[in-house]
Structure formats: C-alpha cells, structure tokens
Amino acid sequence: MGFRKDFLWGGATAANQCEGGVNQGKRGLANVDLMPLGKDRYLVGTGKKKMYDFDQEHFYPALTAIDFYHHYQSDIALFAQMGFKTFRLSIAWTRIFPQGDESEPNEEGLQFYENIFKECHKYGIEPLVTINHFDCPMHLVKTIGGWRSRKMIHYFYKLCKVLFTRYKGLVKYWITFNEINMILHFPFVAAGLCFEKGENEIQAMITCVHHQLVASAMVTKLAHEVDEKNQIGCMLAAGSYYPETCKPEDYWQAICDNREVYMFADVQARGYYPSYALKWIKKRKANIPFEKGDQEILMKNTVDFVSFSYYSSRVSSSDLSKGKQSESNIFASAKNPYLKESDWGWAIDPLGFRSTINELYDRYQKPLFVVENGLGASDVVEEDGTIHDEYRIDYLRQHIQAMKDAVEEDGVDLIGYTTWGCIDLISNGTGEVQKRYGFIYVDRDNLGKGTYQRKKKDSFEWYKKVIESNGENLD
C-alpha cells in the first residue's frame, strides 16, 4: 500500500519570490520587497540593518521576480501538464490591503487571486494557500513596528475574513504562517521586526511570535466558521538535528536545538506553550505578552494539519568552533561528514527526511503535509535548449522514496507533497535566481536580465511520471 489515492502531488511558490508586478494592481510596499541582493540581504533579513525604502546602491529581486503576475495562466497550464493535483502559493497582503490598515480591500488584488484559483480549478488543481509567507505591509512596519504590535492581530484577522469569504468554494486548504520558527532566524522577513540598539532581542521576537500565534488561532476558528470544509495548517521549517557524537553534551544540544524548531508549532498543534518553551523564554529574561483570553483561544483552536519544509538534516555540537560550521541555509549546523552537500552547502539526507516526518507525526498525531522539499542548483542550458538536471531528479527520487517509506513502513498519515520552487524563482536566503529549484527554467539572471521565457527541464517529464503513477514509478 503506497500513497493514498487522493494524495496531493504538486509544487510550491511564494508571492514575494515569484510574482513581481510590485507596482501594479494598486499593490502596496511589503517588507520582502526591500530585501536586497548581496551581502546586506542577511543583515536586513535578521533585523540588524534597517532598509525601509529602496536606494540606488542595491538591486531588489522581488520587484520583478519571475513575473508570475503576467505569466500565471501559462505557468499554471505547465503545472497541469505535469499533472499537479495541488499548487501551493501565497497571498501578497499588500495586494489586498496596500497599507495593511484600510477599511476596504483592493478589488484588483482580490480579482487577481480569484483568477488564479479559477485557472487552477480549470485543470482540477486544488489551491493550497499560505496566507502569510514572509509578508508584512511596510506601512505597518513603519507606523506600529510590524508584529511587535498587538494591533497586527486585528489587521491580519480582517485580511483573513476577506479571503475566507471571497474564496469560499475556491480554496479549502490554508496555511496561516510560513515557517513560524523562522522568527528566531530571519525576524525582519518573518515579522517586519527591526531591532533597536541595546534591546532584548529575544523579547522582541517572542512578542512578535505570540501575536502571530494568537492571530493564527483566531483565524483558524474563523475559517471553520466561514466554511466547515476549510482545512487549516501550521507550517514550520523542519529538519532534525543529529548529535555530532555520542558525547552526552552533543546529544543534549541536539535535544535543545530540536526544541527550538518545534517550539511554536507545538503551540499551534497542541494548543499551549510547552513547559520547556516557558523555561527557554524565562532564561533569556523575556516573557510572553499574554492578554486575557489568549490561552483559551490557543487551546480551543489548534490546526487541522501540520505542514513543513524539509531540505536537509542538521548537526548539533556542543562546540561550534571555527571551521566546523556548515554553510547550510540560515540555521547554524556542524558539518556532517557522512553526507554530500549541495552547491549551496546543504546536506543531502533522504533518510533524515523520513526521520523528520516520523518525529513530527509521533509528536503531533495530526495529518502531515510536506509543502517544501527540493534541490537548489545551477542549471545549464545546452546549445539545443535542453536542460539535463539529473542531480535534481536523483535528489527528489530519493526523498520521495523516503517519504513513501514513512507512509508504507511507518504508518504516517500524509496528505500531500509540494516541491519547492516548481518553477525557478528568487531564493529567500540569497536573493538569487541562479539557485534554481524548478522543473521549469526561467530565463532570468540574478540581476533581472533575460527574456523570462519558460523552458522544461528533464525533471519536468520525470515528475509527470511520478504523479501519474501516484509515486510508484520513480525511475
């Protein structure tokens, strides 16, 4: 017995990484629009450098991205050719409420997403919508400090009420916040948070994430009230930590690191802050800004499913001294000598994927949805226009097999699988397009130059066969 018959195969994107069209359709400015290419990207993303407006010294890749804004019909047609059952995308908040605090939504933005959802349904593709994928109106960042302010709960709730009402019958799978644990690693991106000199940064992050957790619970309740068919999920950046050695200090460090990954999803899936999280926060001289009714809201409105991203496993060491650390993503990790790494220093670990899936299922006992998994690599277009990305096929083949083992051998309840960047897009971590994930190549370089023409890679036909066989044919 393999994957369920109605298993949702597909691909995933995010508005800020693929849409472009930033100045069109009355869209407002968002925090992620201001993430520059180059060395300052990390400083801006981590809230260490304020960039509240564009300047002449930097290039801002999100402004055009891959121009999905003008290509969505032909792109969705390509997804349909692969046989997608679902397409994960996100809503750009500033397309719906350009400033974030208007009394009425922007009809052009609402119509844009309605058109996308109808285009998906034309091909039998179920939209999977991330309401907030690293997206905060800059007006709210400048005026109230983004998610530092409890007022954000009201504005987010208002956005969701509009979305749930307008798209009732068009969307039933929703994710409230993308990678909720990224607040601890990329706070400006995750919450519009910039730090003030000398402040307790942990306190600022905990304040922001508490507001997001309360907002998530409130809109989970709202979604079920608007349409009982709605399924609401949380989402975390997953990837289990291994201890570097069997030294007890390394094993304990792995427990601590894994807890930081799960801490906020625990609240969304279980309904309360676990005791270790309360201790973790207190130890850092911070506190959770509870208000009356928060704990009840969190407890009564847990999510229907748990979704997550997985790219690689990580390694915990009690001694992360110089030279031992991996280049991998935004998470600190010691190098794993047993694993090969991608061009961008990410450990390739399909068995780690199976382990992560099992850990999550054991922990939450709720249906799981893999909503990001994939390989970022530099692709070469041959003289005849073909793109041979056997390395991507190999990565995905191994990871899908590991996922299948988790279902068949371990009994995990899995709803679906969407590969990250099913079409090439902007990397969140680096801002590059050259770090390509897609089955579909987009002719655009890191500085936005190119024809934006789409080309199928070898992986396109391979994934089509995988979907047709419901994961049985991985050759």
From TrEMBL:
GO terms for molecular function: beta-glucosidase activity. Keywords: Glycosidase, Hydrolase. One of its GO terms (cellular component) is cytosol. The active site is at residue 372. One of its GO terms (biological process) is carbohydrate catabolic process. It comes from the Bacteria. PROSITE patterns: GLYCOSYL_HYDROL_F1_1 (PS00572), GLYCOSYL_HYDROL_F1_2 (PS00653). Gene3D superfamilies: Glycosidases (3.20.20.80). InterPro entries: GH, GH_1_N_CS, Glyco_hydro_1, Glyco_hydro_1_AS. Belongs to the glycosyl hydrolase 1 family. This is 6-phospho-beta-glucosidase. The lineage of its organism: Bacteria, Bacillati, Bacillota, Erysipelotrichia, Erysipelotrichales.
